[in-house]
Amino acid sequence: MSAIVACPSCGTKNRLNPTPKGHPRCARCKQPLAWVVDADERSFEDETTSSVPVVVDFWAGWCAPCRMIA
Asked: Which of 26, 33, 39, 70 qualifies as a cystine partner to 47, CB 3.0-4.6 A?
């Protein structure tokens, strides 16, 4: 499952696929990209299998504190 991430430096839209290592960079200007993705049951393992630390935020639509943070 790929994600489209816009580069904060040049605005280029980059298609990113889950990768177990490395850091995503913009195809045009080569600046690092922030990689925040939504994962579900099907893509969770692909998104979180990495050689770098991964922060996972679990939330629920019925949870009032979760909705306030979102």
From this structure: 39
